[in-house]
Amino acid sequence: MSTVATKASKPRTLSLDFGNYILKSFGGHRVKTIRSLQTPLAQGKLVLRSHDQSPIVEQNGQRWHLGSQCRRYTSTEATVLGDKAQLAQLHLAACIAESADYQLVVSHHSPHQYEDFLRATLLGEHRYLHNGNPVHVTVQSVDVVAEGWGAYQLAKARNYVPQRGYTILIDLGGSTWLSSVYAADGELIAHDVHERQGTFALAASIAKDTRLSKPLLERFSVTSPDPVVVQDGFLKGHFYGDSDLCWADWLSDYLDPWWKGIIQTLKARYQSHLPNVRRFLITGGGSNLITHKVAGSPAFLVLPEASTANVQGAFFAAQPALVAA
Predict the structure, then answer these.
(1) What's the gap between Cα 108 and its chain centre?
(2) What per-residue confidence (pLDDT) applies to 195?
(3) Is 221 found in the same domain as 191?
């Protein structure tokens, strides 16, 4: 990691993980989560209630509602369908509600590709309204790290990483799934990004199944089931929104080949490393979908607090280096 700084002071350290499914921020106390949805609020538009996990941000002459409340508007924008890096400034304003100087640790699945853009976007002063309150943020430094790095550091600190051999970390995200190979000394020796193959791809396949699409059309005149709604259902019993339509009984028709494809990809990509692998660590928001599949296997471990392990681990691992800088 390298740090770009604008001035010397004693800023707050904040870890940010702008996920395609959940925005996560952590400053050492409580992980703040915001669903990765945003709705532009035009003049005269009915505005719904805002709160900490679904804030209204006014920035650069535009007003946005973010988070779970966006589901209640007739239309909204899902981060998973675009490029999350382009929304970094808006997501920063959604995550930070207090005026202060900050040094940021920002996770991204392709850090080498996006680090210059993210630094240029986030460094410096930001002025905006957060739930109606004026906020003035000065970002003094930005470290861009690989997604999964924080989760690995947290796992290592909690003695989940074997003292010898390699560890493969699998990060099951909303848009992508990532794989990273770490040596016993913590060196990252391989990192691969599998674009558009995360839980949204799984949700999109389920949305096309006639066992869901047909009753949605017949009962509610829904012509195109929304994969974003299906993705939300993964965390609430596999129901489509608040309806009684559920795919839990046939989820395995899609989950099994999705997970099998991930394992096959790992075997093909890391064939030469596999004899040295002692542990597979699973993290990310999609971890709950496969916990039952790896239960009882000593080689696999789903990290506790898997959906927020990365943002927490990045904070604790990077803070000493940042403070020293």
Answers:
(1) 9
(2) 87
(3) no
Q: How far apart are CA 50 and CA 225, in angstroms?
A: 27
Round to whole Å and give the CA distance between 212 and 245.
7
Q: Helix, strand or coil for residue 202? A: helix
The number of domains in the chain is 3
Residue-by-residue DSSP string for 108-156: ESSHHHHHHHHHHHHSEEEEEEETTEEEEEEEEEEEEEETTHHHHHHHH
**Alpha helices per DSSP H over the chain:** 88-95, 111-122, 149-157, 199-207, 210-220, 227-233, 252-269, 291-294, 309-324
A 10 A CB-CB count for 210 gives: 9
Token match 């096959």: residue?
A: 264
Identity of the amino acid at 240: Y
How would residue 179 be classed by pLDDT, with cut points 50, 70 and 90? very high
Q: Which ranges of 147-209 does DSSP label H, i.e. alpha helix?
A: 149-157, 199-207
Give CA–CA dist 179/159, Å, rounded: 20
Distance (Å, rounded) from C-alpha 252 to C-alpha 258? Answer: 9
> What pLDDT, on the 0 to 100 scale, is given for residue 317?
87
- In angstroms, rounded to a whole number, what is the distance separating the alpha carbons of residues 226 and 241? 10
State whether 214 and 168 are in the same domain: no
pLDDT (tens digit per residue) in 47-85: 999 999 999 999 999 999 999 999 999 999 999 999 999
Query: In 3-state terms, what secondary structure has residue 187?
Result: coil
Structural domain harbouring 276: 149-197+253-310
